[in-house]
Design a protein that fits this description.
By secondary structure, this protein is mainly α. It has two domains: about 60 residues, Winged helix-like DNA-binding domain superfamily/Winged helix DNA-binding domain (Arc Repressor Mutant, subunit A), CATH 1.10.10.10; about 40 residues. Helices cover about 60% and strands about 5% of the residues. It has a two-stranded antiparallel ribbon with strand order 1-2. α1 packs across α3 and α2 packs across α3. The longest helix has 20 residues. The radius of gyration is 16 Å and the shape is globular. The two termini are about 15 Å apart. This is GntR family transcriptional regulator. It comes from Corynebacterium kefirresidentii. It holds the Pfam family GntR.
Length: about 120
């Protein structure tokens, strides 16, 4: 697994790791049943504390994208979404849209940016 981190970013490292894996799943680069690299290996490869990688993996588990089975490791498990995940998505989208509107983005601009983002994910598949 190849993770690109931006040391200049204000986004915490654990969040960057999480986001890179989410994008890889969305693009089909990681599929149902694929094993993620062990926490210690990722930490060593990137040169960070294993607790930081564990925090990213735990967030992926809470998102319902990965399941962790002790020594068996972490396995990608995207699939049937739950009502809780749908509610979480609604809440996150509401916050993002409200912030964007407060910053002056029009509904047309938001639609265009969402379409562009979706296209980027599809093109990279």
């Amino acid at each position: 697994m190849f993770i690109n981190l931006n040391p200049e970013s204000d986004v915490p490292v654990f969040q960057q790791i999480h986001d890179e894996i989410v994008v890889a799943i969305a693009r089909g680069q990681l599929s149902d049943g694929d094993k993620l690299d062990p926490v210690r290996r990722v930490a060593k490869d990137i040169g960070i504390n294993p607790a930081t990688v564990k925090k990213a993996y735990d967030l992926l588990v809470s998102d319902g994208l990965v399941e962790t089975a002790g020594r068996s490791g972490s396995i990608v498990r995207p699939g049937a979404r739950t009502t809780a995940q749908e509610k979480q998505l609604e809440e996150q989208l509401s916050r993002i849209v409200a912030l964007a509107r407060a910053q002056g983005f029009s509904p047309d601009e938001l639609h265009a940016r969402l379409s562009s983002t979706l296209n980027d994910l599809e093109v990279s598949s």
